[in-house]
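I'm curious: can you give me some protein's one-letter sequence along with its C-alpha cells because I've never seen that pairing?
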Amino acid sequence: MKHLAFISLCMLSSVLFSQNIAVLKYQGGGDWYGNPTALPNLIKFCNNNIKTKINLKPETVEAGSPDIFQYPFIHMTGHGNVFFNEDDATNLRNYLVSGGFLHIDDNYGMKPYITEELKKVFPNTELVEIPANHKIFNTAYSFPDGLPKIHEHDGKRPQAMGIFFETRLVLLFTFESDLGDGWEDQVVHNDTEDVREKALKMGANIIKYAFEN
C-alpha cells in the first residue's frame, strides 16, 4: 500500500506541475505510432480551450516501463496486434489503480487483440459500455448521446467501453468512432471542420476527466 501511495503522489505532482502526456508503445507488431499528428493537435486544442498546460510534444512510454507513472494520461492506438507480457500487464495495472488513465482508441482492427490482452491486466474485470450520462461525456463539452461517430468502418455504432476500479473509470476503449483520425491534421483524412471539432471536444472531455478524477 505504501508503494501505491507513493505512486499516486508522483502522479498528482505530474498533474499539478508538468502535465506531460504520452503515447503507449506496446509489443505485438501493431502500429502503436499511428496518427502522428493526432495527439499534438488535441494538446493544442485543450491548452487553448480548457486551460490545460500540457507540453506540446507528447512523449512515448513502453507498457512495462516505470516511467509510465509520470503521466496522468496515456493514449494508445493502432490497427493490429497487441501483446502484453506479464511485466507489462502488472505495470499497467499498478499504474491504473494508483491514479493513471489509459485511453485506447481503435484505429480499426484492434478490438480482438486488445480485449484479450486486457484480461491479463484485469483478469476478473470485463469491459463494460459507458452510459451516455457518464461524466466523461459532459465534463467540458456536452455529448448527450455519448461517443460521437467520426469515421465509418463497418457500419456499427460507436461504443465507449471502460474498466472501472472501485468507482473510478481508469480505462476507456473507444470503438467504431476513430477519434484519433478526427484529431489529425485536416489534410490527412479531409474531415470537415464540424467532424474535427466533435472529435477534439470529445478528446478534451477525456483529458479533463483523466486529470480531475
Notes: Strands lie at 22-25, 59-62, 74-78, 102-106, 128-129, 159-165, 168-175. Residues 57 and 168 are 28 Å apart (CA to CA). The chain has a mean pLDDT of 91. The helical segments are 2-18, 38-49, 86-97, 111-121, 179-183, 186-189, 193-212.
